[in-house]
Amino acid sequence: MDIDRVDQIIDKHRAEASSLIQVLLEIQSENNWLPKEALERVSERLEVPLARIQHVATFYKAFSLVPKGKHQIHICMGTACHVRGATRVLDTVQDLTGIKPGETDLDLKFSLETVNCLGCCALGPVMEIDGKTHGKMAPGETADVLESYE
Predict the structure, then answer these.
(1) Global pTM exceeds 0.90
(2) Coil, strand or helix at 145
(3) Is the pLDDT score of 62 beyond 90?
(4) Which of 23, 78, 101, 136 is the most exposed place for a label (fewest CB within 10 A)?
């Protein structure tokens, strides 16, 4: 990530240590992860120890210290989705992308995660990509949905 862009984000928040989480969220949003160089710059500019920043970055699930794919896939494995075939949808996504939950494909196109609930149980099974909900998914529809994100 461009350090000048990190500086712009920090300046936007007046380089206040109290804005640490918001600064990290914006860096994560633009880069899909938090590179070490960006964290070091945030530490320097906000005068917050790097260890503290790493603690925050590892505490919150929203942050990643490893590269993530351009598109974030979340498969709901909650009860309503599970009984309607979420495991078949998950298996299909794994077959099509070649990755398992918690992984990112080599060309950084997709990252896959399972979640316990996406809050739209009536639409199960649900697959969410980049915040967009795809409900009543069937394994046969999965390839078409993934292709629309290529």
Answers:
(1) no
(2) helix
(3) no
(4) 136
**Structural domain boundaries enclosing 133:** 71-147
- Per DSSP bridges, beta strands 110-115 and 127-129 are unpaired
Sequence-separated (6 or more) residues with CB below 8 Å from residue 29: none
d(CA 33, CA 67): 5
| 120 in the same domain as 79 | yes
Tell me, rounded to whole angstroms, the distance of Cα 50 from its chain centroid.
22
Q: Is 38 within a domain?
A: yes
Residue 36 pLDDT: 95
Residue 101 lies in a domain: yes
Give percent of the chain above pLDDT 90.
93
Coil, strand, or helix at residue 71? strand
Residue 25: inside a domain: yes
